[in-house]
């Protein structure tokens, strides 16, 4: 198993390199770089895109060394900005410098916030982890019992109407469901039961311990429900199908023939084998909810997490934050893939990835 993990860890390096090369290359063709952002603010335009007349990257043609929209600004000012942001160097050199810094775990500093990228990520990470962890836990708590019940009642009216509800829930986009929750329960048009934004109320520090916990769950309720909906549907059907596959196997018929009760057959024999793929997939489900729902859900509910940070960095063309978070997210995703394999071995020691590869 050690050799398998080592191979997987070594595979992380070329994968991350490919991700960074592709995204760095794409950024070069996106109009409205950080310097144009500053120029737009200096000229009072408010938005860099108002000063863009056509596509292109941060630089205009070789014959004109000024930036789009920089007319009227001193050339020295533009050159000073280029030097400060490192745009006085060719793209290849900038990319190699960035990789060298990342190898030393130096992710740079935000162009506009004057704070290190690592500090920014650490500041926003708890919000996104909270949202992803609660969503995943609730999805498992609801999906596993419901999936088992659907497998036992396969083909009955209960199975039919719950499948219909699950399909409808899966078909609703997370952002649309979030807006629906706001309209219904956050003072949009009907009831104002839950707060509209944030994770805590004003004066939260002065609350008692019980008051802090209650206030936190009061704020997190709608975002968690909105981000759970798709994972809940997938896990329920996965659990049901896993149980159905195991129930039809020979060892289940043998256990029943020995006179074991249906409950003992189901939870004493079938459960472990059927739950292998569901439980082992926990890290992957968490990372899917973490990445998939954080951007839209955090923006809609004004949660100050990594998703919202990435969105704001993309709009502002804050390249150190964009590439730093992309690099960290890439490592997290690849490591979670390895953890998922380890979970399979933990749940069922009979699995041997090294022998399968051989």
UniProtKB/TrEMBL annotation:
Q: Where are the transmembrane segments?
A: 9-30, 127-148, 160-186, 216-239, 274-301, 321-347
Gene3D superfamilies, alphabetized? MetI-like
Q: How does it sit in the membrane?
A: Multi-pass membrane protein
Protein name from the UniProt record: Microcin C transport system permease protein
Q: Which UniProt keywords apply?
A: Cell inner membrane, Cell membrane, Membrane, Transmembrane, Transmembrane helix, Transport
Cell compartment(s), UniProt: Cell inner membrane; Cell membrane
**Which lineage do the record's taxonomy fields give for this organism?**
Bacteria, Pseudomonadati, Pseudomonadota, Alphaproteobacteria, Rhodobacterales
Any one of the GO BP annotations: microcin transport
Q: InterPro entries of this UniProt entry? A: MetI-like, MetI-like_sf
* Source species of the chain: Cognatishimia maritima
Check the record and name the PANTHER family matching this protein. Answer: INNER MEMBRANE ABC TRANSPORTER, INNER MEMBRANE ABC TRANSPORTER PERMEASE PROTEIN YEJB
Task: Give the record's GO CC terms.
Answer: plasma membrane
Pfam families for this protein = BPD_transp_1
Determine if Nucleotide-binding is one of this entry's keywords.
no
Which residue range or ranges hold the ABC transmembrane type-1 domain? 125-344
| Similarity comment text for this entry | Belongs to the binding-protein-dependent transport system permease family.
């Amino acid at each position: 198993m050690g050799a398998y993990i080592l191979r997987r860890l070594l595979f992380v390096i070329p994968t991350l390199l490919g991700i960074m090369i592709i995204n760095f290359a794409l950024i070069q063709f996106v109009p409205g770089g950080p310097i144009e952002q500053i120029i737009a603010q200096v000229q009072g335009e408010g938005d860099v895109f108002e000063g863009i007349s056509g596509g292109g990257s941060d630089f205009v043609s070789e014959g004109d060394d000024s930036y789009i929209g920089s007319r009227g600004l001193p050339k020295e000012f533009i050159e000073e900005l280029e030097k400060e942001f490192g745009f006085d160097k060719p793209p290849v050199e900038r990319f190699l410098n960035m990789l060298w810094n990342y190898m030393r775990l130096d992710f740079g500093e935000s162009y506009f916030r004057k704070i290190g990228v690592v500090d920014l990520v650490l500041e926003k990470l708890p919000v996104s982890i909270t949202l992803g962890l609660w969503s995943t836990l609730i999805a498992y708590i609801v999906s596993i019992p419901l999936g088992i019940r659907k497998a036992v009642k396969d083909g009955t009216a209960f199975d039919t109407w719950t499948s219909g509800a699950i399909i409808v829930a899966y078909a609703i986009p997370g952002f649309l469901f979030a807006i629906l929750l706001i309209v219904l329960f956050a003072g949009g048009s009907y009831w104002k039961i839950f707060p509209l934004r944030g994770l805590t109320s004003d004066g939260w520090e002065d609350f008692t311990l019980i008051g802090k916990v209650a206030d936190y769950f009061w704020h997190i309720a709608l975002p968690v429900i909105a981000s759970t909906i798709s994972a809940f549907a997938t896990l329920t059907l996965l659990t049901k199908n896993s149980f159905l596959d195991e129930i039809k196997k020979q060892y289940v018929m043998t256990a029943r023939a020995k006179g074991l009760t249906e409950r003992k057959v189901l939870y004493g024999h079938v459960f472990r084998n059927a739950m292998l793929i569901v439980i082992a997939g926990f890290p992957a489900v968490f990372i899917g909810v973490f990445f998939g729902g954080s951007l839209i859900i955090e923006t809609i509910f004004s949660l100050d997490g990594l998703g919202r940070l990435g969105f704001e960095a993309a709009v502002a063309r804050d390249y150190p934050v964009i590439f730093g978070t992309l690099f960290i997210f890439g490592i997290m995703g690849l490591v979670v893939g390895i953890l998922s394999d380890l979970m399979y071995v933990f749940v069922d020691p009979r699995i041997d990835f090294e022998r399968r590869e051989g």
